[in-house]
# Entry
Amino acid sequence: MKKIKNFILALIGAGVLFTKKVLETFKKCSKAVRIIIIALLCLYAAHLVTKRVRRVIYRNFGRYEWRDERICGNIWIHEFHDDKIRLYDESTGKYTTPKLNWISDISDDDSIVVYALPEKRGYLNVHTGEIVIEAKEYQKAWIFSEGLAAVVKDGMIGFINRNNEVVIPFKFPLPKYDNENNYYVFHNGYCVMTDINGRVGLIDKKGEWVVEPAYEYILSPVNGYREVYDGLYGVLGPDLKPYKPAIYEYVHVDIDKTVTLAKDGRMWMEDLDGNVIVPFMYDYSDYLEYPEDIYCAEETCYVLSEFSEYYIGNKVGIMNRVTGMPITDAIYDEVKMISSCVFEVTLSNSFDRTVLDLEGNVIIP
# Structure
């Protein structure tokens, strides 16, 4: 510690001596030389300050020109170094908006999109780049759908029209925790909405409940059918009544007018009339191997079997990969072959292992 202290003192002393020497030399110079030296020092200091100021300005106000994006006709998005954007009209050479945090995705069905300022939301027309509803009073906003848009004011959700007139009063509380599956957008005359407890139902354009809030989320309709979730999955029909009750572990309504369902270790596909069209389905499968009695290079050799393990969600079952048919439902946590004719499985929520034969019958419980 003493050596470090002495070293620092020596450096300070050397610096003082050097400074004195420079000052003495400076004083010996002629007046003209001293003026030139002072001017050069001032110019260098000004250069450093200017360089720093330019960096700050560029960082805050410069833009990424290579990220320019045309969004509609003559309207472009310019992105700046401060992570803000502005809309630019190429035909006039002028910006049509101040700096914005972001704008929502642009739809082929509507020219009005949401734009964001800190803690505020408004609307603009992407065809003209002009703001149509200023971001002053709304804390959150969603795109227009069927002539209405959901907005949040003082923590409550209501709906406005394009003239910024309130059509459905601000009577629905904004959930404390956002659910990314819930979008407050009208489809076929109905919109997902939450109650004071965060439960989800459907309202009509009068703001009246047509499906009581009894779900965790309700998805947008596909062919009029809506997937719902409340611990388990179900489907609402076009009449908004349960087409499939919420008792399934998986549900998917496809645009080809089919419904895929999973329950109790089985997955299958039906048409919208309830007829089974694909009786056996799964998410993915993998080959099963069993160990041979001989050893290869002091390691166990494995032989590819004619069976596969197949998965539905995070549960596994056994299928014959030659016939493509299951020999067990997907109800196990783990499956492996311990010989050419025996499976070892682990049941869900259990550490106990069960031995099955090639037909799925229990040999050793």
Remarks:
- The mean pLDDT is 87.
- The CA atoms of residues 282 and 312 lie 5 Å apart.
- Residues 284-364 form one domain.
- The helical segments are 2-28, 31-61.
